[in-house]
UniProtKB/TrEMBL annotation:
Organism for this UniProt entry: Chloropicon primus
A GO molecular function held by the record: acyl-CoA dehydrogenase activity
Designated name of the protein: Acyl-CoA-dehydrogenase protein
Necessary cofactors: FAD
Upper lineage: Eukaryota, Viridiplantae, Chlorophyta, Chloropicophyceae, Chloropicales
Transmembrane segments: none
């Protein structure tokens, strides 16, 4: 195509050098570590910068090409005949090999190459190589994921579950059989050794309420032999959604049947199991797993999401009977943050391509970037991009502190509540942004080969995966009740401290100054609401059911206001910091903080729509 014919095509900038906010964020956490007193680590800030810069380039070139290829219709995973009929000519035809002959999973070359790159780049391993960056291992890893995910053709999804699985193994301890079989593979940088993991929780009766939904049962294994060396049970049931169907292993929930044949109902009847899905040659086990069909989905079509029938697959029960939900939540809390960084990554991509397009597309005699209404939309994208990254990185920083044993009790409590908050809020932000992005490109936004429909479709799943918004609101409540509101209080105190220092830096009388004061008041109100909730639901709470329902009916308002208070404070903190001169201008930081705080102050409790930004902030954001 001649150049003049593609003048409006948006270009993707270098994922590191073209993203000043990311660079400033990484800089902020490395500086924080220097102030806090650094633990022992082998690598320093300059090593991190070097790696992030070269990775940023690889993401928008090689990875991006592969991601686009994985998203093509002809690359979609499919079930194919595993063996030709003539390969079975000399075997008895049993139900087993007939089934096996019928189905195996095919994935594209692009998908496999993304697997190899993920291994080489340590996209999971980096979190566990704590000797490199100590408590900042997670900040470093998530910076890489942030640059990768929007280009990854959703290879980000199996990586999320693999990371959660590796963390779960780590918590089991080095002596545990499952740790010994799986951990080294999950964190390997060797593409041939690197395993991914699935997470099978959802069954046809329900994915949120797993205590009622899970009907899969585990029967004790009474045979020895090769399998018996590590397995101690067999699973029977039907898993309704399995996204990482090409994975080597999975963690799953099932209802334990004891030697006496007894089965407990509800959460206490669920245990956690480890399954090796494939054999040494990488083939789906024929002794107990049937790939029944692939889901025909609205989006995420790159992913081999299947329904699996378990007909006695060997597995190993992990930990205590009946503690499955509590145990698998260690995995879920990691995948929820992957969901958040994916949302943030898409929003950054949206901000990048819409701005570039707006600088090229002229309408009614002027470029879009000079049209006030378009400036409003572009500014929203930038604010959401910064807000979603700020929130996720704060959670990720706390995760790194906690995993490296350097978190204080308040920080651990804050991490617990921030995880569902972050997941639910960023997922809402990306859905709003993806829909506006599609419209921003007009008719081209609707054309498959632009890649924009793929961003739209793949974003829509983010509020569903790893728990829908309502379920996560209830998880926020669970976290508050478990620690008498300590995590929420820590989050609000951290926010008010940041807001106060921002207010001291902002000239009185200015809009930012006033908005900070309003958000600070919101924080005080929220503290009161948290304690009244804890009282109403706590052991000593005397609230009647109707009163509790009243609280539950209002829960989302409190949840969204917690998100907005924290994000306001993080953006204010960021803007009030003097940034390295090569990075973003501080006027951009001020404008974003000011626009976000004003929006939070005017609609503290509802959705993610920022409303109308004042035009001077919007213009400053887009011009920066
Ligand atoms: O969607 C899925 C994969 C998609 C693909 C991967 C995407 C990754 C991102 C990629 C980006 C590209 S997999 C399916 C995900 N499913 C869920 O997330 C389930 C959602 N439902 C919930 O979260 C529910 O709230 C349940 C299942 C946790 C509710 O169950 P129960 O039975 O009501 O649970 P209980 O009784 O409240 O909690 C049982 C125990 C308690 O501990 P104890 O017994 O010590 O008091 C809870 O405190 O589990 C503990 N617990 C937690 N602990 C529950 N949730 C948590 C938590 N989040 N953190 C810590
Ligand atoms: P439900 O739990 O029935 O929820 C329906 C609605 O009810 C939601 O809007 C929810 O917010 C609301 N709701 C639920 N409880 C309450 C409440 N108490 N109060 C108010 N509202 C409530 N699962 C896996 O285990 N592994 C996978 O690999 C996997 N991959 C997936 C891939 C794709 C593409 C998709 C779409 C799903 C996948 N899932 C997977 C399933 C996913 O995790 C579930 O769909 C999700 O957890 C929601 O469960 P559900 O579909 O049963 O909806």
């Amino acid at each position: 195509m001649a150049d003049k014919d593609r003048t409006h095509q948006p270009w993707i900038s270098h994922a590191w050098l073209g993203d000043a906010y990311l660079r400033d964020t990484v800089d902020r956490y490395f500086s924080k570590r220097a102030r806090r007193g650094r633990g022992r680590s082998r690598k320093g800030y300059t090593d991190a910068l070097r790696e992030l810069e070269s990775w940023g380039w690889r993401c928008v070139t090689e990875v991006h090409e592969l991601g686009r290829e994985a998203g093509q219709r002809e690359s979609e995973p499919r079930l194919v005949a595993a063996a030709r009929k003539r390969d079975l000519a000399w075997s008895k035809v049993s139900q087993d090999n007939e089934e096996h002959a019928r189905v195996n999973l095919w994935t594209s070359e692009a998908w496999k190459k993304l697997h190899a790159i993920a291994a080489e780049e340590g996209l999971v391993a980096a979190a566990f190589e704590r000797e490199n960056y100590g408590e900042l291992s997670r900040v470093f890893q998530f910076s890489k994921l942030y640059m990768f995910n929007a280009s990854s053709g959703l290879y980000s999804c199996p990586l999320a579950m693999t990371d959660g699985a590796a963390r779960l193994c780590e918590l089991l301890g080095r002596e545990d059989m499952v740790y010994r079989r799986a951990f080294g593979n999950l964190v390997s940088r060797d593409p041939l050794r690197f395993w991914t993991s699935g997470q099978w929780m959802t069954e046809i009766q329900g994915g949120s309420d797993v205590a009622s939904g899970v009907e899969t049962v585990a029967k004790p294994l009474d045979e020895g032999g090769e399998v018996g060396a590590w397995a101690n049970a067999r699973l029977f049931g039907y898993k309704w959604f399995s996204s990482a169907t090409d994975a080597r292993m999975a963690f799953t929930l099932a209802r334990d049947i004891g030697e006496d044949g007894e089965m407990v109902k509800g959460t206490r009847g669920l245990s956690l199991f480890y399954v090796e899905v494939r054999d040494e040659q990488g083939r789906v086990r024929t002794d107990g797993i049937r790939l029944r069909r692939l889901k025909d989905k609205l989006g995420t079509r790159q992913l081999p999401t299947a329904e699996l029938e378990l007909v006695g697959v060997p597995c190993r029960r992990i930990g205590k009977r009946g503690r499955g939900v509590a145990q698998i939540s260690a995995l879920m809390n990691i995948t929820r943050l992957h969901n958040s960084i994916t949302a943030a990554s898409y929003i950054r991509r949206i901000a990048c391509i819409t701005l570039d397009y707006a600088k090229k597309r002229a309408v009614f005699g002027k470029l879009l970037v000079d049209q006030p209404l378009a400036i409003q939309t572009l500014a929203h994208f930038e604010v959401h991009a910064q807000a979603s990254l700020a929130m996720t990185m704060e959670a990720v920083y706390l995760l790194g502190l906690s995993e490296s044993g350097r978190a204080m009790e308040d920080e651990k409590a804050m991490l617990r509540i921030l995880t569902p908050l972050c997941k639910l809020y960023t997922a809402k932000q990306v859905v709003w942004s993806a829909s506006e992005c599609l419209e921003f490109f007009g008719g081209q936004g609707y054309i498959e080969s632009t890649g924009i429909p793929e961003i739209f479709r793949d974003s829509l799943v983010l509020p569903i995966w790893e728990g829908p918004t309502n379920v996560l609101c209830l998880d926020v409540l669970r976290a508050m009740l478990a620690d008498s509101g300590r995590g929420a209080t820590a989050l609000l105190s951290r926010s008010t401290r940041a807001l106060l220092s921002g207010k001291q830096g902002a000239p009185p009388g200015q809009d930012l100054h006033k908005s900070i004061a309003t958000v600070t008041k919101m924080a005080h109100d929220a503290k009161r609401q948290v304690s009244s909730l804890v009282q109403a639901f706590g052991d000593k709470g005397k609230a009647r059911e109707a009163e509790r329902d009243e609280h539950l009916g209002q829960l989302k308002r409190l949840v969204f206001s917690l998100c907005k208070i924290l994000v306001s404070s993080l953006l204010v903190e960021h803007s009030s910091r003097s940034l390295p001169s090569s990075h973003s201008s501080s006027s951009l930081g001020d404008a974003v903080a000011s626009a976000y705080c004003k929006s939070a102050a005017s609609s503290p409790e509802s959705s993610v729509d920022l409303g109308h930004l004042d035009f001077s902030s919007a213009r400053a954001i887009v011009a920066a």
